[in-house]
Design a protein that fits this description.
By secondary structure, the chain is of the alpha+beta class. Helices cover 34% and strands 19% of the residues. It has six helices and 19 strands. The termini are far apart.
């Protein structure tokens, strides 16, 4: 009888009356199952390595042109502006007395082609595009020539459908007491985009087998191109990392089974060795009872057989100890590799989530009320800092500056919209769009961040007011009444 373990044949039997009672066959089946060379069964490789790089992802070189919708409560009209100044206009019906539509700066937070109100008896709200989580939205509805809604902005059917095709999550929407429109604007305080090299993934993500893209010369990518490269590489890393998890888990499970079998075999071997040594001891004690020479010869033969069996059991036991130690170490390494593979996949998913947000336009809000600057991208907070405003007792107004691409130039063209307010405190007339920027001094860290992530659609909002809804997954909501 022999035990099989990766090509080793381990003798563990002996002749003697006790051998028929020892579970050697059980031990052999538990440890070996088959005498194969190491790795002959084609076990997976190290879980920390990945065998194939995923296909390359197409990288966009230009950001989509931004759109902005402005609702005038006085005119009961909505106007949607393209980056080149073109616009489309429609009648609306906003909130009636007691249910007024709030003025301020919003963005589309959620879109549903078919929606029912969870406030007003499941009233239908087709082509719903949400502006606040507290119940304000653009949607198709009855549009008389006066204010008639409970706060939402109702749109005629044809225009609601058209706006649905034009809208997207994050599109800026302004609700103004009267008609305003974006105007061309330039100011030395506004940032300019800077070129950069190929961005690095988050330092915690390590996936060795993802094929690196061809080297990109330093300072050769626009901020948007860099964000797109980051996204493409994050997608590749995630695919490779997730592909590696199952082989790593399978390997860990297999190694755990082997370690358990080796432990069981060692336990059975302990019983075998104990019984073999006990058998030898009994045979040796029997020598003291012999009375004839022929009986003594027979006992000596039996002792030699028992000694051989004990020696074989002892040798097999020592070998099984080595096997158990090695199997346990391999099981531990495989479990650690599986854990590392799962961690890498989790981190890769997290990095992809951040990279997906990082291709959205940057949104900056500077509040006179709080004296802070807040930065979000893809409705995700990325930065916050103190930002004192000169002459802080004087109203600064509410102004929205939007980056618009300047064809054939590395500079950025900007538009500005000043939303009529009373400053929120009855102070002197608020600053103009230019005066407001004159009163700001952006910290270097904030200016650098903005320049490295600046492309069409980025916006800077300056306001006397503070944040409205602030939960993650929400762009800035600034209520100005």
């Amino acid at each position: 009888m022999a035990l099989c373990w990766r090509g080793w044949r381990l003798p563990v039997s002996w002749r003697g009356p006790i051998s028929s009672r020892l579970p050697i066959a059980l031990v052999g089946s538990a440890v070996g199952l088959a005498c194969l060379p190491a790795d002959a069964a084609g076990r997976p490789g190290d879980a920390r390595q990945f065998n194939a790089a995923p296909a390359a992802t197409k990288v966009r070189s230009a950001a989509p042109a931004p759109r902005m919708a402005i609702i005038s409560l006085a005119d009961q009209h909505i106007e949607v502006f393209e980056a080149d100044g073109r616009s489309v206009r429609s009648r609306v019906s906003t909130g009636k007395a007691g249910h007024g539509t709030p003025t301020g700066v919003f963005s589309i937070l959620q879109r549903r082609r078919y929606h029912e109100s969870n406030i007003y008896s499941n009233a239908p709200m087709p082509f719903m595009q949400r502006l606040t989580w507290s119940g304000i939205a653009l949607h198709q509805g009855y549009v008389p020539n006066y204010r008639a809604s409970h706060g939402c902005i109702r749109l005629p059917g044809a225009f609601a459908s058209r706006l649905w095709t034009m809208g997207h999550i994050g599109m800026r929407v302004i609700v103004s007491p009267k008609r305003v429109r974006p105007t061309e604007f330039a100011h030395p305080g506004l940032p300019s985009p800077v070129s950069t090299g190929l961005p690095q993934l988050a330092s915690v993500v390590r996936v060795s087998a993802v094929t690196e893209e061809p080297p990109v010369a330093s300072a050769s990518l626009s901020p948007y191109e860099a964000a797109q490269h980051r996204l493409a590489r994050a997608q590749a890393v995630k695919a490779a990392a997730e592909k590696a998890v199952k082989p790593a888990l399978d390997l860990a499970a297999g190694k755990a089974r082997e370690a358990n079998l080796a432990t069981a075999a060692l336990s059975a071997s302990t019983v075998i060795l104990s019984e073999a040594e006990e058998h030898l001891e009994l045979e040796q004690l029997a020598m003291a009872t012999v009375q004839t020479e022929s009986a003594e010869d027979a006992i000596r033969t039996r002792i030699r057989t028992a000694e051989a069996g004990a020696d074989a059991a002892r040798a097999s036991h020592e070998k099984l100890k080595e096997i158990e130690v090695a199997a346990s170490a391999e099981a531990f390494d495989a479990a650690r590799s599986a854990r590392d593979a799962q961690t890498a996949a989790d981190l890769a998913r997290e990095e992809l989530n951040l990279a997906q947000k990082a291709v959205s336009p940057l949104s900056v809000f500077i509040s006179r009320k709080t004296g802070h600057a807040y930065v979000r991208q893809g409705s995700h907070p990325v930065y916050e800092t103190d930002l004192p405003i000169a002459d802080p007792e004087r109203s600064i107004g509410t102004h929205v500056y939007t980056a618009v691409e300047e064809p054939g130039s590395s500079e950025m063209r900007w538009t500005a919209v000043s939303v009529p307010t009373n400053g929120g405190d009855g102070s002197r007339a608020p600053s103009t769009a230019a005066d407001a920027l004159d009163r700001l001094t952006l910290p270097n860290e904030l200016r650098t961040l903005m320049s490295e992530r600046l492309w069409p659609g980025a916006s800077i909002i300056v306001s006397d007011f503070g944040l409205g809804e602030t939960n993650d997954g929400t762009d800035f909501v600034i209520i100005t009444r």
